Amino acid sequence: MATQSGEAVPTGSTGARSAHRKALGLAFAAAVGGFLFGFDSSVINGAVNAIEGQFELDSTVTGLVVAVALLGCALGAWAGGRLADRWGRTHVMVLGGVLFFVSSVLSAIAFSAWDLAVWRFMAGVGIGIASVIAPAYIAEIAPAALRGRLGSLQQLAITVGIFAALLSDQILATTAGGAAEELWFGWEAWRWMFLVCVVPAAVYGILALRMPESPRYLAAKGRDDEARRVLASVLGPDEDVDDRLDQIHRSIAVDEANLAQGSLRGDRFGLKPIVWVGILLSVFQQFVGINVIFYYSTTLWQAVGFEESQAFTVSTITAVTNVAVTFIAIALIDKVGRRPILLIGSAGMTLSLGIMALAFTQATGSADDISLPGAWGPVALVAANAFVVFFGASWGPLVWVLLGEMFPNRIRAAALGVAAGMQWIANFAITLTFPPMLAAWGATIPYLMYAIFAALSFVFVLTRVPETKGKELEDMGDQAYVRG
């Protein structure tokens, strides 16, 4: 088969497999940003207690140091979508890699809680950029039949990054005899936890420099020959490259003819309905409390009686579980669809969070020294991991897939940036409020609150979330994909 420009495209099943391998390789490369996202946002887990002790912080300031990166994430997500439309997807990936690299070094040499907070904010900007660019890029280079699975690689990479951060924290803390103890060159182990991140940051930046630009960005800039080459390399011989490029140009032409519709503004509280769906998906993903498990799990399990080394091990097992169950979503998303998986996830999270809330009603002792008697400790541990299973197989990967594909072309990058920015603000709110809530009321109230939000997420998906399985990105529209 050949395109209208005369360029040869591989034919037969071998050509299709080759193209799909190319798309998979590019999706993996883009998803390295997800790895950094997971690693850099969770590396603080093992360092929290050491930082609190070294800088003599109270629980509120500790929560701020942990959560300030999330404000940077919101800024990075908001700006990332707009910069991607101006500079291109891959150039913005390089920017994210540089921010990751520099912030990791500066966090490692921090001399106070306040300068550490500044460097963590910088890291957050890089995380926010990666959170927007990876799903957008993957959605734009993936064939429709593979888009859900390839889009799920972002969440898989995030979960692997979380696992790698927790494992790295555990190894460094164990080697030093504690996160606050000196390890190499007079540096405490917690400083090395941050410094390790320079390795994946460098890998991400190098990969981004070698990746082709998104065909939709190239077409929008009039670089059709480049767009055609990228499309031919990832779609395979069964797809008409020139027809797909024509679809993209028609979409761009419609956008230019309806510039007013290219705005996110609409008649639903100032925004288009589809933008609100994206925002609420993002908010519910965070309001179920998943990042409490990954940011504070080591501290939480120490609070219920585990030693530091045991708490690290439990947190690492939880992260491994999160990685494993993501493969369930990858296997099912393009077969079952998005909505059924989200509904099952919401129901499972509601049940498991409710059990955790019930278990912590049996806690004894003060907020600083509590324990769960008898079988309640194992019950809480099993429920926490069940929660991770239901989240990791549903809301974790699927929200990123939906955000990458549900918006019309003309507003995709900007809308994704707004939705992801709200996700980080919601993450910030949950992360900042958990320590004082835990200190004031114990774990029962926050976990009950997260269970209520999980139940509300079920109702939201049932009534408002569209099914996007198998639809081309060019076919996405404002009204056709909003239920109710």
* CATH C-level category: Mainly Alpha
**Structural class, from helix and strand content?**
mainly alpha
The name of the CATH architecture is Up-down Bundle
Largest beta sheet: strand ordering: 1-2
Spans with pLDDT under 50 lasting ≥5 residues?
Answer: 1-12, 478-484
Gyration radius, rounded: 22 Å
Q: Mean of the pLDDT scores?
A: 79
**Share of helix, binned:** over 70%
Biggest β-sheet: count, sense, barrel? Answer: 2 strands, antiparallel
Whole-number total of structural domains: 1
Briefly note the CATH topology name: Growth Hormone, Chain: A
What's the structural blueprint in terms of helices and strands?
Blueprint: H1 12-42, H2 48-54, H3 59-87, H4 89-108, H5 113-141, H6 147-176, E1 182-184, E2 187-188, H7 189-195, H8 198-210, H9 215-220, H10 224-235, H11 241-257, H12 273-287, H13 290-303, H14 308-336, H15 338-360, E3 364-366, E4 369-371, H16 376-392, H17 395-405, H18 412-441, H19 444-464
Helix pairs in contact: 1-4, 1-5, 1-6, 1-8, 1-10, 3-4, 3-5, 3-18, 4-5, 4-7, 4-8, 5-6, 5-17, 5-18, 6-7, 6-14, 6-17, 10-11, 12-17, 12-18, 12-19, 13-14, 14-16, 15-16, 15-19
